[in-house]
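ok trying again, last paste got cut off:
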Amino acid sequence: MDRHTAQRLAIGGMVGPVAFVATWALAGSATPGYSPVNDAISDLAATHAPTRVAMTLGFVAFSAGVIPFGFALRAARAGPAWIPAVATAGFTLAVAATPLGAPVRDGIHGTFASLGYVTLVAVPVLASRELARAGRPGWVRYSRATAVLAGSCLLASTLGPFHGLFQRVGLTIGDVWLVAVASQLVLTREMF
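nice, full thing came through this time. structure:
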């Protein structure tokens, strides 16, 4: 893959996460009674939610951006980090395809969401190995901190109170890393 194609693919790593975060922020603020602290993002895409279409499109936008970003990581020789990047996009599509609102479907939805969390956290973990080989200690520290902080918040979102807040913080930390790396790949492609 030539450099310009990889740079164009990396743009998805900026557009997809930004669209996703903007969608849940706007849809949540437009929904009376919805609490971003106590309610999950997926509640905005539930079967009978008034924001279902918008939030479903937010999930799809994330995936449509992060899949090409994953291939940009592969082209940039970021090691196996491209695999969980594409996987997290795939699990996000699966989350969109199984909206909350039915007992059996809710369990499947939760499984896909959990797998999406794990794969999102795995991207900076795996990238940090290649960043270390490339002599990028600042990026290594940032990647590892992202994985620890995002992983901790996403785990906390499954365990107890304030799950909406922990989910948003964890996903935002992971998404900011995607945007930062994608921006670097678009600007130089000499990261790894």
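cool. Residues 3-187 form one domain. The CA atoms of residues 150 and 171 lie 7 Å apart.
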